[in-house]
Amino acid sequence: MIGLDILHKLLDRLVARSPKRARARAERLSKAAPERALALFVAAAEAGDAEAAFIVGERYLEGKGALAHPVSAARWYQLAAEAGHVEAQCRLAALHLFGVPKAAVGTDERLFESADSDAPDYHAAVVWAKKAAETGAPDAQAMLAFILSSGPEELRDPDAAFEWYRKSAAQDCPQGRLGYAIALMLRTDIANNALMARDELLRASEAGLPTAHYLLGAAAEGGFGTALDEAEARRLYSLAAEAQHTAAQIKLGLMLLEGRGGSVDPLNGESWLRRAAVAGESDAAMHLGELYSRGGALPPNYIEAAHWFRTAAEQGHQAAARALGTLYLTGAGMARDPDEAAAWFKRAAEAGDTVAQADLAVLLQDGGVTTLDNRDIPVHEWFERAAEQGDLIGAFNYAVCLAEGIGVPRNDARAAFWLKKAADEVVSAQYWYGRMLADGRGLDQDDREAAAWFERAADDGMADAQVALGEFYLQGRGVPYDPEAAKSRFLSAAEADHSGAMFALGIMHNDGTIIGSDHDEARRWFSRAAEQGHAVAALMLARYAAQGLGGPKEIEAARAWYERAVALGAQDAAEELATLDLKLTEQAKADVEPEMMA
Fold first, then answer.
1. Mean predicted lDDT score pLDDT of the chain
2. Phi and psi of 553, rounded to 5°?
3. Which is deepest, 219, 283, 410, 580, by most CB within 10 Å?
4. Which pTM does this prediction carry?
């Protein structure tokens, strides 16, 4: 007796001799016996049945009746496409354009998302998309329009793309309507283009396209072509965000955090930003870093901030790399590490972030970086380029490079030239230019002009300029000798925690010939300056404690300040400490000798 399986196989072989009968039997067996159905579809396809070839391609793409195998799917689609099968032509174009496995173009709006494939083959895709588009297939028309508007430069044809989007939209294809709306937004030669675009977006949104919801939300948020309505924007962003539209997730997250269009909801706002960041949106990661570094809606958390800044920076986000460098520089949420800070500043700077370029230059000038060689970093080139383009901050930084020999030979004359240009608006440049005039570097010495520039920067609140101008008043350089004016400038700088100004105030009160001797006040100012690491102030404070000036005589405190002054590199501190120790030793011997004599 013949087994049932053998009988089925015999029947399948007999039917396979006729492509039409093979496909019909395959369709009947499709659900109950997918493997047998696939074999019959293959037989029909090999016999020249284009529809069967298309179905085989679908089965291999979906993994139905066989393991999913996109390459095999493409081979069968090609067989059907070459026979004029329009759907196969669409599928083949989509495979070339978007990769696999989700290659179908439909209401999932893949035209407006990044391709899964690492290297989309636009040239192969355009061939098959055009063949299908010319038959009137609306999906293919939208795909062809996308290639002609967003593909490689050599394939682009904006006018043709506009027409194909229009044709696709006219057939009520959601993809076509969305593309046509975007194309209309870019056209200024069409009357009522904004209204037409909004109408197309509304139609596309009815089909559930997330990008349509997102664009309508952006219009409502900004009041573009419609009334400003943040509540409506929030609703539309929510629809798109729920459909995994990452740009909408960022917008929704920010609106929830800021309480725009509804109540403040920091937890959900953070959650939407996090979802977008996890999906690879560097802007979302940057926003999270800012959220946790600044605090506000949520408590500050520098460890979280560093994580998200790093995530965004590793994806190429310039501002995030700079922000991460700042955390390393300040030691917020991590150990302070100038070298690591410099590495992240360098990454952002090389990507064109001008703020990071300036931050890196300052860090290199301070000399706290050990892992980077100034000669390997074209800081001066960045700033020279910015300066020549009229950027006054760039002009100032380029002048500093020239004045300090950072990356270029020192050139005082050129430094003075660029400082003068930058000094029109940059306060630091005003101070530096004053210093160049005072020192006669790169131009003739001119104390009066130097004092004028110091005063300009000082009046803008720059502490270094306050101190420089105070010193000029004490010396009568470029301005009349005026101790009270000097004291006023030093006090202003001291309020900004300028240790040099504090030390100067201590000296003024120490020297009775300037404003009258006041050892108590002098000691107070020396103490404040010394606590901020001013070496000579520490030495003066040691002397005051040793001599009992401005307070009690405190030998142990004097020794401690002498040791601090030695560590800070104050001249004469080590010698005076040794003298103090010698006197203490001799005093101890003198105190002991009478007792021994007795």
1. 86
2. -75, 120
3. 219
4. 0.67
